[in-house]
Every structure is written in structure tokens, then in C-alpha cells.
Design goal:
Largest sheet: none
Shape: elongated
Number of helices: 7
Number of domains: 1
Radius of gyration: 15 Å
CATH class: Mainly Alpha
Bound molecules: heme C
CATH superfamily: Cytochrome c/b562
Strand content: under 5%
Order of helices and strands: HHHHHHH
Oligomer: single chain
Distance between the termini: 29 Å
Structural class: mainly alpha
Length: about 140
């Protein structure tokens, strides 16, 4: 297993349990679903990179396309402030909205630029590194 990739994937996904049970605010639930979908696509890429699943270029590029599409939903989903006790979103998101939106768009453009570039298993580490960096840039500031 490639340790760097495993670490990057962990950082990107976070270690918190993905428990949506008990989330009452439907806007919070909707934005969590967007993130969860992004996380699932990252796992598809991570599992291939680690050799847990067979390399499949089409599936990898499709995962990147899906991450780009879902990332385009981040800003619209968060724009109106919504709170829930189960949410991991930090209130400074709305005090520093432009910065948050810029970080969201970085994930989108990075995923979109990478989509279609995966032709060999060796491409996955670079893609995960670049993309994971954009997740981490936001999570480290705006997620508990
Ligand atoms: C612009 C900021 C931003 C970017 C970029 C971002 N995230 Fe998130 N992410 C958040 C915030 C904020 C939360 C917490 C949402 C909440 O609990 O209300 C979150 C939560 C999550 C969760 C937990 C969702 C759940 O089930 O509760 C996962 C998984 C996740 N992000 C994966 C990713 C991955 C993978 C990327 C990069 C491809 C990424 N995120 C990019 C801000 C971001």
C-alpha cells in the first residue's frame, strides 16, 4: 500500500464518523450528502490507487467528473447559513464567505482538470494528491 496516498485520503476524508442520524436541519443534511458523495468518489480513487480494486481508467475519470459536479454544489449548498448540532461546519464559513467559495471552486476546477487525464494506475497518486490538497485546504479551516 502506498502510505502517502493512504494518508492523503485519510486527511481528505477526515476521521470523524459519518453519522447523519439525528440531523434535523434538511439543508445541513443536503450539504452533508454532497460531501458524502464527494467522499465516496475519493474512496473509489483511493481503493484503486492502493490496489484494493482493479484499475479502471474510465471509472477513475468518471469519479473525477462526479467530484467536479458535486463540488460545484458546495457553494450553493452552504451559501445560506444553516446549523445543526450534528454539523461539523464552522460558523466562520459565513464570516469569510468569499474565501470559502474560492476554496470550493478550487476543488471543482482541480477535479475537472484531472478528469480525463487518468490513463494508468500511476496517475492516481498525483490526482489524489492534488485533489486531496483542495479538500484539506477547506476542511482545515472550516470543518470541526
Ligand atoms: C469549500 C470547503 C470544502 C471543500 C473544498 C471540501 N469540503 Fe468536505 N466538508 C466541508 C464542510 C464545511 C464539511 C462539514 C459539513 C457539515 O457537517 O455541515 C465537510 C464535510 C465533509 C465530509 C463529511 C460529510 C458527512 O457525511 O457528514 C466528507 C466525507 C467530505 N467533506 C469530503 C470532502 C472531500 C473528499 C473533498 C475534496 C474532494 C471535500 N470534502 C472538499 C467543506 C469542504
Amino acid at each position: 500500500m502506498n502510505k502517502t496516498i493512504a494518508t492523503i485520503t485519510l486527511i481528505a476524508l477526515g476521521t470523524a464518523a459519518l453519522a447523519h442520524g439525528g440531523v434535523k436541519n434538511k439543508d445541513v443534511l443536503a450539504r452533508m450528502e454532497v460531501m458524502k458523495t464527494i467522499g465516496e468518489q475519493m474512496k473509489v480513487l483511493g481503493a484503486m490507487a492502493k490496489g484494493q480494486t482493479a484499475f479502471d481508467a474510465a471509472a477513475a475519470n468518471a469519479a473525477l467528473t462526479e467530484i467536479a459536479a458535486q463540488s460545484a454544489q458546495i457553494a450553493p449548498m452552504f451559501e445560506t447559513r444553516a446549523d445543526d448540532p450534528k454539523s461539523e461546519a464552522l460558523p466562520i464559513i459565513w464570516a469569510q464567505w468569499d474565501d470559502f467559495a474560492t476554496l470550493a471552486s478550487a476543488s471543482e476546477t482541480t477535479a475537472a482538470a484531472l478528469a480525463g487525464t487518468i490513463t494508468a494506475k500511476a496517475d492516481l497518486g498525483r490526482a489524489l494528491g492534488q485533489l486531496g490538497g483542495t479538500c484539506k485546504a477547506c476542511h482545515s479551516k472550516y470543518r470541526e
